[in-house]
Amino acid sequence: MNTPNREWIKFMREQYPVGSRIRLTEMNDPYSKLKPGSEGTLMHIDDIGTFHVNWDCGSTLGLVIGEDRFSVLPPQTKELKLYMPLTAELFERNSWGDLEDDPINLYGEDLRGYEYQITAALLRERMPEEKERGLMHWYDEKDSVEQKVRSAVFTVEERDRKLWGVAECQVVGELTLGEMITLKEYISGQASDGWGEGFEQREIKVGDGAELYVHLWNGDSSWSIQTEEECFGQKQQMGGMTLG
Questions:
Q1: At residue 244, does pLDDT exceed 80?
Q2: What is the pTM of this model?
Q3: Helices (H) and strands (E) in the chain — how many of each?
Q4: For 37-148, where are the E strands, in sequence order?
């Protein structure tokens, strides 16, 4: 087999990211115990184009394009949630029907009663371009995070009697520590200066004509973005990796 060039290898890695599912059709190896229909998970594509697969049966035998026949299934994803504290200002109406000048500051425990309205507002704010990948549509680095994190969207969730901002991410394969740091930094930026900056300026109509302005990010030193384990002590399993 001729050694493929770098551009072709790069194209294959972009088309078939780590975590893609592989289904064997035929293998040109009389000594292999793999049968047609065997499935496994793609670990990586090396520099000569061999597909290294962690087969469900326990084998790690690689596949060679042009010699073996196989199909690549859509990659399986697992959900990763990143939690962040929510704050908001509530502007109520006075007896004349005008909005008060001074808002009421609300925090996670105060916002539980507004979960439905905030969720609906977050859904309305999503742009058509974000339909498939959410916030990852705006991620402009061609790196492993772009390949592994298939989508990320903002939502809210009640936990421990507080309403939290949540980035719900669909991830293929395992995130390394460096990739997790990069993802957190990107989501934090979107919460503060990107997507969240526009959202916090949109009023959310609530009862009696009051207006609610919600912040996914704030400058308080206590603000953070954390995995489920970091925030609540509960582990999230992704492949063979425990996140937190």
A1: no
A2: 0.73
A3: 6, 15
A4: 39-45, 50-55, 63-64, 69-73, 78-85, 87-91, 104-107
